[in-house]
Amino acid sequence: MSEHRTVLVTGGNGFLGSSVVRGLAEAGHRVVSGDITEPEPPVPGVERVSLDVTDPDSVRAAFADRDVEVVVHLAAVVTPGRKSSREREYAVDVTGTRNVLDGCLAHGVRRIVVSSSGAAYGYHPDNGAANGGWLTEDDPVRGNEAFAYSHHKRLVEEMLAESRSSNPELEQVVLRIGTILGERVDNQITALFEKPRLLKIRGSDSPFVFIWDTEVVAIIQQAVTSTVTGIFNVAGDGAMTVDDIAAALGRRTLVIPEPLLRAVLAVGKRLGVSPYGPEQTVFLRHRPVLDNRRLKEVFGYIPSRTSAEAFAAWQQARKQA
């Protein structure tokens, strides 16, 4: 088989997708970029198709007569918009993945690379209990129903596990990605770091693991041509607690008892002044901390930045923006 592949990228115009598409094209692969929006600007040499993963007909059309060898499935709702709904997010995240998997199996695709998330493990006080708080790929996925993205990633991973059993001919690389930082990253997580004082729940370290966005792209590109299959946590070495992050930013923390924060969030949600309810304290207290040894030792990728170095690079980029 040639080193160059025919690759269909779902979510090809998204934050990660646009970089993955460009990198694969520059590496000489034949790239089909599928999304519901127009790329800005178009990538030379890349075929663009209109692809709505929630529509089986649209997915079938994206595969038709293209001899796709590898699918990079990135289409997902990471940060819902104001007009989003749980039903719409489920349709994209879960039903969309089912449609893409069906397309792969119907068209003889050899390999699928899926961007999952550390959120698939869920937010639980006993996360990583067998490994000092660090989650390995052998830990169960228990994405909380209270958080749409976490729950949907859990359902997607359960679907992928079933497919590995029933259709082993379709190779899988599943990437459970930690918190992504980069020069252009601006989202609900980084917004936490822009506050004058960082919120901390009393008695909780709330550690974060970070990975630089270009490293995620490089890992996805490697997964397209690698012979390695499996599930891999994607994060830099080490973690940063809220206190570590506050110290790096030269700021103080605002320490609040969990019962008080739950009460405040409940009132804010009821009055419509906050999109977050009392369940958010679970998200803040029990963040998944990803062990990356399998990424380095089995997949063969060693992140060039630790979590702390990725955060420092993000800080520097914000200062220069």
List the helices and strands and how they pair.
Blueprint: E1 6-10, H1 15-26, E2 30-35, E3 47-50, H2 56-63, E4 70-73, H3 86-106, E5 111-117, H4 148-166, E6 171-177, E7 179-181, H5 188-192, E8 197-201, E9 210-212, H6 213-225, E10 230-234, H7 242-249, E11 252-256, H8 258-271, H9 280-285, H10 293-299, H11 307-320
Parallel strand pairs: 1-2, 1-4, 2-3, 4-5, 5-6, 6-10, 7-9, 8-11
Task: Explain what the structure shows.
Keywords: Isomerase. One of its GO terms (molecular function) is UDP-glucose 4-epimerase activity. It comes from Saccharomonospora amisosensis. With 321 residues, the chain is α/β, with parallel strands linked by helices. Helix content is 40%, strand content 17%. It is built from 11 helices and 11 strands. The strands form 3 sheets. The chain has a 7-stranded parallel β-sheet, sandwiched between helices. β1 (6-10), α1 (15-26) and β2 form a beta-alpha-beta unit.
Count of strand segments: 11
Structural class: alpha/beta
Strand ordering within the main sheet:
3-2-1-4-5-6-10
> Globular, elongated, flat, extended or rod-shaped: what is the shape?
globular
**Helix content bin:** 25-40%
Count of helical segments? 11
Distance between the termini: 44 Å
Reported for the largest beta sheet, the result is: 7 strands, parallel
Mean pLDDT: 92
Oligomer: single chain
- Alpha carbon gyration radius: 20 Å
Range of strand content: 15-25%
Listing every helix as H and every strand as E from the N terminus to the C terminus, the arrangement reads EHEEHEHEHEEHEEHEHEHHHH
Low-pLDDT stretches: none
